[in-house]
Amino acid sequence: MKRTKKERQRLLMETIKENPFVTDEQLASQFGVSVQTIRLDRMELSIPELRERIKDVAEKNYENEVKSLPLDEVIGEIIDIELDEKALSIFDVKEEHVFQRNGIARGHHLFAQANSLAVAVINDELALTVKSNVVFVKPVKVGDRVITKAIVRGQDHEKNRTYIDVLSTVNNETVFKGEFEMYRTKGKGDTE
Amino acid sequence: MKRTKKERQRLLMETIKENPFVTDEQLASQFGVSVQTIRLDRMELSIPELRERIKDVAEKNYENEVKSLPLDEVIGEIIDIELDEKALSIFDVKEEHVFQRNGIARGHHLFAQANSLAVAVINDELALTVKSNVVFVKPVKVGDRVITKAIVRGQDHEKNRTYIDVLSTVNNETVFKGEFEMYRTKGKGDTE
DNA sequence: ATGTATTTTAGCACTTGGTACTAATACCAG
DNA sequence: CTGGTATTAGTACCAAGTGCTAAAATACAT
């Protein structure tokens, strides 16, 4: 016994958290105890067996994959869109979007929702943000549902620019607003 | 045999790709064949067994997790920081940051790097973005290494504001610039 | 129809990484 | 020495397979 049982179990927890892919046998030799001891430890700490641990990791991944697919294309979910006119999206603020310290959403998530909505509303192959002025009016908290509206204000056909206003609200209160100047390859109504 | 072997194997591939968590037994009953047939099919198609599949998903996840953890705290990696003075971060643009269509980075990733650097440079418990004006000067492509510098320009102690200029470059060429107005709880040098 | 080939099924031994349980030791304290 | 905790050993069993052999079913051709 190098150190107490408690100490070993503490290390065991850490080790497994750090690398869930480790077998009891590996753990046993690492801690210089028998496999049975490791099993007993796992039971006491209610740490599931290797396969379950792997499965857990895999399942977590799977959720994320499903979640990040639309989340990659547009931040938030588009609920209404009239191309080159306006668009509406909602975005539920979760734990992973906020500062742990105070539960306030990181600015770039709100920006991302607004920006990707601005891209989406443009009826074109290519739409890029050129400039934007944004104001974070009021802190957004975890659990808030942010509703964002993008309205196409106008276009400069010569410069291939589209101007979009974006307004985000939570419970009808403005939390974020911004103006986006977007570049696009073809103007509204242009033919290929 | 409802349809040919080929057809079954095609469906088998799809089914497993869609849901890798399925056992041979489940597949057998789903396709109305014996477990052995499924095993043969998997061999011919060189699809690994359930546990291997799960492990693969888990391992893929693990990579991502390591990637997304620092990516959540600060977008990009901070390579130098002088609190309340300036900070420097690098961000390698990968496939997942760009539009598939043209390989150009989505604006909000550049914004996120700039924004999180602006948050990081502030030596305070709480730092929130109030306003920002940003310009996307030049498209950033996959593979580019974006170097972003944040410089604290000034403070308004009465309003608890800090003003930060951010400049991002790729190969010494400016690709993005922005001004950030940040809210902070305490001013530089203030004591608790 | 008969023969040959392909496909499918069955059965058995063996593998990993375990669980569940029992029993034997070892160690340490009073 | 006796008791209690900690550790180890050993057995039976499980899931979800692999690997292998062999039989049965089906298809296809002549």
UniProtKB/TrEMBL annotation, chains A, B:
Residues 8-50 form the HTH deoR-type domain. It holds the Pfam family HTH_DeoR. InterPro entries: DeoR_HTH, HotDog_dom_sf, Transcription_factor_FapR, WH-like_DNA-bd_sf, WH_DNA-bd_sf. Keywords: DNA-binding, Fatty acid biosynthesis, Fatty acid metabolism, Lipid biosynthesis, Lipid metabolism, Repressor, Transcription, Transcription regulation. Transmembrane segments: none annotated. GO terms for molecular function: DNA binding; DNA-binding transcription factor activity. The keyword Transcription applies. The keyword Transcription applies. One of its GO terms (biological process) is negative regulation of DNA-templated transcription. Belongs to the FapR family. Transcriptional factor involved in regulation of membrane lipid biosynthesis by repressing genes involved in fatty acid and phospholipid metabolism. This is Transcription factor FapR. The lineage of its organism: Bacteria, Bacillati, Bacillota, Bacilli, Bacillales.
